[in-house]
Every structure is written in structure tokens, then in C-alpha cells.
Amino acid sequence: MEVKQNLTAIIGNIEAACRRSGRNRKDVHVVAVTKYVTADRAEEAVEAGILHLGENRDEGLSGKFDRIGDRAVWHFIGSLQTRKVKNVIDKIDYIHSLDRLSLAKEIDKRADAPVKCFVQVNTSGEESKHGLSPDETIPFIEACREYPNILISGLMTMAPNTDDKGLIRQTFQSLRQLRDKVKAMELSHAPCDDLSMGMSNDYTVAIEEGATFIRIGSSLVG
Predict the structure, then answer these.
(1) pTM
(2) Which of 89, 56, 94, 87 has the alpha carbon at shortest distance from 72?
């Protein structure tokens, strides 16, 4: 199916979720996760009206960036190795996986201007997932004050791969509550306005719980 048709269906689901939760549709941004598709397919997404593209490897990002460039807003959504920062820093607009001070230090060193970062939080408690524990998150954010090129725009999490909607919702609620605590601190380096959460199988629940960026791959671009 064409990306444009997929996007039309997804937008309908987003609008319905926003109505249910009393939210403004304009506050929800779709990041097309293009890590498993070709540059042609990524370009099709841009031509369909998608502004945000997400990649999780430096090689995939470089190839698509060379083709699409500044026609998209680029998100690095995978775990980022410190040694790979230099390969992506001049291409990306957002990093969704800040989870350690060594990475913050390297981003700060390599960047020419503040980089919008999401702190990755493991709100599900699953050992298989990356990210800080909720208890570690605020001290980590406070420590990032030392790095002027780190701008913490929000928090990110991934829900468990389960059919239990209650558990999924709880995972997202926990992130929103933590985000609200950070936001209330009014830190200049961490406005923390955004929530990156929700993927193809759970994005409507994420929107109901406050997601501002949803990361959609298979149901959008394949």
C-alpha cells in the first residue's frame, strides 16, 4: 500500500485519539521510522506530507540524508554509541536516546549548537530495554546542565510488547508524570515540553496519555 494511503488512515486514528483526550491534533507529530526501508520509500513518505523521519543507524541516516537533506526533520531514534556521534551530529535535529553522561559529553563536544534530546526512560522496568530508571532520570537531567549543547526537549519511552492495554497505558502515564515533574522545575537546559512515545501498535494510547511525537514504522512505510 502507498504511504499516502497509510498516512490517511493513521491521521484518522490520531484525530480520534485527540478527540477522546481533548487534545489539539497539531500537538501530535508523526515520525516515520524509515530504518527498514529504502531511500525511495523514505522519499515517498516526504512527498506524502511527512515532515519527520527517524533512523536508528548512522549508515542508514547518511544514505537517506544525502537523498532528502533538509526536506525532512531528522530524528535519531536508536541507541547511539558514543563513537558514532561524530557521524550523525551534523545531520540530526533530535536524538531520542540520551541515557548516559558519556553520550551527553560527546554530543556537547561535537555539536556546533544545542541539540534537542529526549532522555530515554525505562518506565516498564524490562531488562531488555535501554534507558534510565525513573528514579535516575531527574538527577541525570540536572547533571546535563554541565553541557551547553544539550537541550532536553522531553522524555522518551517504549511500552512492553503486549496486548495488555492497561499495562501499556501505565507505562505512558508514568512517563508523562515524570515529564511534568521535570517541567515544573523550570530548568533552562531542560524545558521538557515533549513526550516521545507510541509506535505502530500502541500510538493511539500514547496520544491519549500525552505523546507529542509518535514513532511509526511498519503501519506507515512498511
Answers:
(1) 0.95
(2) 94
119-177 pLDDT per residue, tens = 999 998 888 788 999 999 999 999 999 999 999 999 999 999 888 999 999 999 999 99
Written as nine digits, the cell of 144 is 546535563
What do you get for the CA distance between the two ends of the chain, in Å? 9
CA distance 160 to 176: 16
How many Å apart are CA 76 and CA 69, to the nearest integer? 14
Angle formed at CA 99 by CA 94 and CA 101, multiple of 5 degrees: 105
Question: DSSP letters along 58-108, please?
Answer: HHHHHHHHHHHGGGSEEEE-S---GGGHHHHTTT-SEEEEE--HHHHHHHH
> Which amino acid appears at position 30 of this protein?
V
